[in-house]
Prior knowledge:
The complex is a heterodimer of chains A (109) and B (113). Chain A has 109 residues and is an all-beta fold. Helices cover 0% and strands 57% of the residues of chain A. Chain A has strands at 3-5, 9-13, 18-25, 32-37, 44-49, 53-57, 60-65, 70-75, 84-91, 97-99, 103-108. The radius of gyration of chain A is 13 Å and the shape is globular. Chain B has strands spanning 5-7, 10-13, 19-24, 31-37, 44-50, 53-57, 64-68, 74-78, 87-94, 103-104, 108-112. In chain B, strands 2, 4, 5, 6, 9, 10 and 11 form a seven-stranded mixed beta sheet that branches. In chain B, strands 1-3-8-7 form a four-stranded antiparallel beta sheet, with no helix packed on it. Chain B is globular. Chain B is mainly β and 113 residues long.
Amino acid sequence: GQNIDQPTEMTATEGAIVQINCTYQTSGFNGLFWYQQHAGEAPTFLSYNVLDGLEEKGRFSSFLSRSKGYSYLLLKELQMKDSASYLCAVRVNDYKLSFGAGTTVTVRA
Amino acid sequence: DAGVTQSPTHLIKTRGQQVTLRCSPKSGHDTVSWYQQALGQGPQFIFQYYEEEERQRGNFPDRFSGHQFPNYSSELNVNALLLGDSALYLCASRFGRTSNEQFFGPGTRLTVL
């Protein structure tokens, strides 16, 4: 089975930084994805890590440690529009993504 | 360039009925995956279609079946609906079986009464 854990909820203030952690234990590993999902909408791709280290893309950065089974998504300079669910997903083989339950981030003014 | 499209947007069925959901992949994509997302949960992998064949299946019963057509569009069929089948059904497409970039459609919200 696949076990992917992330916090249920996080709250932060506009302009602040939030770090969403994800730990995983899976039968295979071909990379880790982060998706953003606004309520009632489709998940949209944010980042992909397959090697250890930090990937930076604008206000969003993602980190991976394969030996620790750990990743985080860092959201900087938070904006109200960043209020959404953030999904951590592990690609366990060529075909399948296993998702965590998602972290709901609420940005307050 | 149209992204992934799904129909219908919303659907209400009763227990025991059958339902067919449809997906058209993003232009240029040939691989379609289906996911079920219950309220407050992450998407769960149902199966993937490539070259009109089911390539892998998640932990879903045989009541869930699918098809891919020569134009790469796909259908998800669910028979003998249960209350627990109520969920958002997401279709995702990509080019090739192994590419990393995968795009999700807006989903079909299925309610089983």
